[in-house]
Amino acid sequence: MTDLDRLAAEKYVLLTTFRKDGRAVPTPVWAVRDGDALAVWTVSDSGKVKRIRRDGRVTVAPCDVRGNPRGAALPAHASICDRDGTRRVRDLMKQKYRLLGRLSLLGSRLRRGEAGTVGLRVVLDG
Length: 126
What we know:
This protein is α+β, with helices and mostly antiparallel strands and about 130 residues long.
């Protein structure tokens, strides 16, 4: 089993982005396999999206719901999906997280609208 397979099988993944001064900002997120990458779904104007837009360097690690790491952090690069990519990420989230995923996506769409969330693609280094 590859590192990507192990991370994709986790319920939560700790996505760590980096501020301009280099400080790490870890966030537990849902993640799903999307071909050769992990896909993450998040709020469009979140801090992590702003940091990824500036510098796509991230790390990912398995974690629990509170963000406590349960394994080694792996270096990766994240990019922000376009509208079609974000739609694909939403569909993948619905498949993996079933009813809870569907309810979360619906609630988010009602609160923020279609453009209020965005997909992220995380490709492991190496």
